[in-house]
Amino acid sequence: MVHAVRDALRSGEHLAVQAGTGTGKSLAYLVPSIRHAIERDTTVVVSTATIALQRQLVDRDLPRLAEALAPVLGRAPTFAILKGRRNYLCLHRLDGGADAPEPDDQLFDPFAVSALGRQVKRMHEWAAKTDTGDRDELVPGVPDSAWRQVSVSARECLGVSRCPVGTDCFAERARHEAGRADVVVTNHALLAIDALENRAVLPEHDVVVVDEAHDLVDRVTGVATAELSAGLVSAAARRCGRLVDQAIADRLAEAGDGLGMVLTDAPLGRWERGLPPPVKGALVTVLDAGASCRTAIGSERREDPAQATARKLALALLDEVTETSARLLKAFDEEDPAKRYDVVWLGEQGPDSSRTRALRVAPLSVGGLLRERLFGQRTVVLTSATLALGGSFDALARQWGLGPEKPTEPDNTEEPDPIPDPERPRWSGLDVGSPFQHQRAGILYVAKRLPTPGRDGLPPAYLDEIAELVTAAGGGTLGLFSSMRAAKQATEALRPRLEQPILCQGDDATGLLVTRFAEDDATCLFGTLSLWQGVDVPGRSLRLVLIDRIPFPRPDDPLVSARQRAVDARGGNGFLTVSATHAALLLAQGAGRLLRGMDDRGVVAVLDPRLATARYGGFLRASLPPFWPTTDPEVVRAALRRLASAGAGITR
Ligand code: SF4
What we know:
This protein is of the alpha/beta class. 46% of the residues lie in helices and 14% in strands. Bound molecules: iron/sulfur cluster. Iron/sulfur cluster binds next to helix 4 and helix 7.
């Protein structure tokens, strides 16, 4: 992997590397990256999906490497961490330089007000101690509603030259540090903003290493997704009301109310044929009223910081409202749904008593954007423990906007390409394997004789199967369920039946539950999506990973169904390309929880028989680590019993 990354950085050809847990992949990309940065006097950006990996890189890998490489390189390499502005405490806002907190529903609740007050007080105390102002260092954390009172988005920031406390600003300090560092560690969201929105939030760089690259498309889609609700329009109107003639702000508020009314009557879900006429009318009114507010606020002028802040906060919201309205109005200009850029749907959120509706708009595909703005501009190294699905990188490469992989061996049947097509960036894939001996350390059991899972929760046969497997294993089970409902159902049904304690996600903070699970051999932990990717428990505490069903996305997920249809319309197989790929990635991540250390042994049990029987089952199985496979319940229970009693070595 070290050599492949080095060659990629030299040639400028992109590289995708699958490297199993425990390979040491961060060292394998950091060493050549650091050398590249120092030799070329440039910065290499390393992007991750999770805070845990950011911490590992900045607190462990990079300090060790800096020390080890300094004698060879002639100086110690430098590194920094950089996040979005919203992640840092804004001293100006904390000082009350920005206007009063924006009233939201929660603030009318006296208990919420006092809780919020306590949290803001805590953040004031923390502000006096912290060196970084980085939200992730505030332990325990605070809810978003509290953090919003002491932070600003990039659009809301006054700018360092106008801000009265700009010289002490945490976000500016982090940017400054990053600008001088050889390696900058960031997250996929900031990478996406830098690349897609043409806003230079990261230092100048020619190489990007995307770790946890299996999550790149989802994170980029998240950044490129916008939302519009009546509440957002009202908030923009309130902010404008402090700056412009009240009648102008009132027009925007009324437009927001009008939008709220038409959304109440509009159909929920994805809209395929166009905007319903009343919604279209309401959006045009919002856009007009927003434009009038903008004109009334006028262009930037010399003002005191308090006024400038109020203006910035109003403009940030106003821009969000008008840009999203305009994007929604344009979304159906193209008649053919498969050629449209955006997908539009109406969603609902919040508790039953106060559900609110919002329009959402997201790109049908981010491949084109990534190809043009990321792969077209920089050398990219993508890596993860799970990139090769069904034994090939093609599925993910397609989502990244890359064409087929270039032949790794010289292909004499193909004419050399004298003018490489810039539309098709060249890339190669490499699977460096895993240090684990999957065949000897783990069993993949598929409960082939169980019924296909239905829509009405876990059937009794599933609960019996789980009880038998957990009993044979003596606990130590991580239950990965496809829905919270199923996780809770299994917990409630099995707690009275089993001796082993069962923790369920939601009983307490997930981190604490994972710690309790790791500390006791017999304890089981049942949960859903965040556990599929976020549990790293080496040793005996985890010897059985249970998966209740193949984690296909919901068929009514607006983005998934639109993406599937677009592939079908082009003559492809939408189900395989979109849903099966999504499921394969999650299954591989879930199964990857089993072996985290060289001595780990255990079983991955998939209760959904379709993994063995369906046509797509082969693709999914080929995406999993190569465990020893069986569909015989007796064989797997006997192995689990041996594992439970011997405390080591799983033998067949
Ligand atoms: S420069 Fe921006 S983020 Fe920094 S303190 Fe000022 S307003 Fe806040």
